Amino acid sequence: MNRKIYLFDYFTVIESESLNVEFHSHIAQQLSFSLDSCPLKYETEEGVFEKRFIYLPSLIKHRFLSESCHNLTILIDEEASFKLDVEHIDTRVLKLETINRKSVESFLKQLGLISNKELDERIIKLFQMIKDYENLDEVKLKDFANSLALSESRLLHLFKEEVGVTFRKYILWQKLKRAVDAQAEGRNITDVAIAAGFSDSAHFSKFFKQSFGLSPKEIFKNSQFIQE
Is residue 218 part of a domain? Predict the structure, then answer.
């Protein structure tokens, strides 16, 4: 198994021994950390760089110049609101002696990507309603807003404020989680897309490629997905 992938509500964490040496770009913002003594050598349109930790904003075309290096990469939705704490990042990565869901979550909290604050009860209730919704492609904000006795605009504002990402993007990431569950059952890509709530496999593949720079087939082929 080449990669371990941890899915969260609006970002994903990938532990891998390999790097993408082809020029590519993706909508997601990217944080990558070397977990070995080797630095990450990469190229963008601005030149060639060599660092233990890199940050690439959304849609920056790049490639790595070495195919192998034990690394941890975090791909974050481009609309996400977060304050990245870069101080002593290298030291924190070096403390990740064991990579598992618990250690990854602890690391993400230190980076400021996971908050310890208590969510508004209405948002917690909304999460459950979304989880129980059978077809996410038919989600209607109006129905949720009525159930929570909020206007649509107020719900959208509250959601972004509490969660850190827009309601629309949150739904897309939930679809992605459902796609992973469906893929684990051995379904083909079309069935995976429909089960996840995408209108068709083309829509699913496009979202996947734009978000991660790789097709679903490329990701599913050599990856182990680790969810809650």
Answer: yes
